[in-house]
Amino acid sequence: MRIGIDAFGGDNAPEAVILGVKEALNSIESNIVLYGDESTIVRLLTKHEVNLQKIEIVHTTQIVSGEDKPVMAVKKKKDSSMIKGLIDLRKKELDAFLSAGNTGALLAGGLLKVGRIKGIDRPALVSVYPTNKGISVLADAGANAECKARNLKEFSIMGSLYAKEILQIENPKVGLVNIGDEKGKGTALVKEAYEEIEKLDNINFIGNVEARDISFGQVDVIVCDGFTGNIILKLSEGVVKSLSDMFKNVFMKNVFTKISALAVKSGLSDIKKKLDYSEYGGAPLLGVKELIVKAHGSSNPKAFKNAIIYAEKALKNDLIGKIEKNL
Amino acid sequence: MRIGIDAFGGDNAPEAVILGVKEALNSIESNIVLYGDESTIVRLLTKHEVNLQKIEIVHTTQIVSGEDKPVMAVKKKKDSSMIKGLIDLRKKELDAFLSAGNTGALLAGGLLKVGRIKGIDRPALVSVYPTNKGISVLADAGANAECKARNLKEFSIMGSLYAKEILQIENPKVGLVNIGDEKGKGTALVKEAYEEIEKLDNINFIGNVEARDISFGQVDVIVCDGFTGNIILKLSEGVVKSLSDMFKNVFMKNVFTKISALAVKSGLSDIKKKLDYSEYGGAPLLGVKELIVKAHGSSNPKAFKNAIIYAEKALKNDLIGKIEKNL
Description:
12 helices; eleven-stranded mixed sheet; alpha/beta; globular; 11 strands; 2 domains; homodimer; Isopropylmalate Dehydrogenase
């Protein structure tokens, strides 16, 4: 298998990408194809003494930035580390492609260069969401800021398949994010989506889910538009981090609190690990014909490593084939 | 001053309302006017031995439920504990009205029975949002699920005035909730709102704010539509609660962790207090001509007590007059 990686995508690229690749190499069988400026990549591979046996480089001259308009990026930056990789994915020169870059551009590139699975209007970024109980699935986690009811319906189907096939959750409970439990609450979009999802007979739709119940794992599949999904992911990340900071201050207060910190250290680091996005690797962009994995924009080497391992696992699991078959 | 209270609004009404009134009586000067079924109210006042000196009852025969459609509730339930109170507020028989009931109905009642301040299209629920740094203001916290750019602009003005006049924050930083820092990100709504807010010269607009930065107090005024605002408030509440549960389990693990819990107990309860919505009282519905305060739907007696104290404080501060003058 060949996994392509956008070496210039994400806040910490390209160094964090190269370090992530180095760390992943021992855990994977795939070959890695790095997309980006060759001389920079070679310099970093050398600097970090990366084993080159399974590594190839495809030299590209452009970079898609966070400010680029998605469709413009796809059209004008065909020789970028992101778009060139997607083109090669379409040509089957790669089995999967991974990027931590501009989410909108990755979606647009996936749509325009790789193509949709039949029956899907808009692909969704399907992310895991750690809860008190375990792991839920969030769809869409930020690919489509603006959605139609049809899109939310498709997200609910793909999210449910993902929970079942990849996370092995039996009969996953699907909930529509809304501002009230009752049917008929919320915006025109969620009201219409509720009606559409309710009609599906191949998913276990339990109705609306309020934001306060999400982190308790009330549902296994959290369905929402990408604007809301992005807020849910990033707000959770922020609240966990700010609360951890407050806790840290409490423990640093005096000698007694410092000693007490030792007693709970392992328990707290278990929680931290459980909630750390970088432990979970990337999020697949489901609904396109090939495997595209989005890593968190602020991915560190560990996050890249886990995203690469995740991509290989998803390939071995035939994630895209299963989605296609079940739609 | 006379503060009207919907005795039958909220998940724990009417008992939590009566207990909240009892607790508030020592801290306020105002008279309390309770709206709802007289015999039930009298029974609860008697049961809890509430001092009746400053209490009046207005008997009503209907209740607005969580399932009621807002405008229908206003039209068909004129003799409900919520709508009758709003009618009396308009007639100046009350100086303020407080309810923990159906937010949509309270907004519709505020619009149709009390009326808007000139120049305001949609009133906003303006809530405090505790952060790492202190307190921010969230507008809209859930009154308007569906918004136009104009509404977000007005929320930014009212939120800023609230932060300045009531929370005494000098030159409060105003941020628009979005899925990216850069101008031009997000939905059509937020893009248009950005343009509108940018033109204002009486607020300190710093641009977009990402959800992950909200709980660190990056901005003093968090501007968003009511759907997003409701998600932000309730998700934060849920994440804090689920994280606290996880921490609790860590501390309960063995005798050493239990002892260590003692050392950090006061620090942790400071955090808990800081993040506890019931400490902050209610959220005013700004943009209507009189003071309407919304208490959290799941308010307990302490939350009602603080909402009542808050309402009196807002009256003394001439909150509505200041908003009206500055618009």
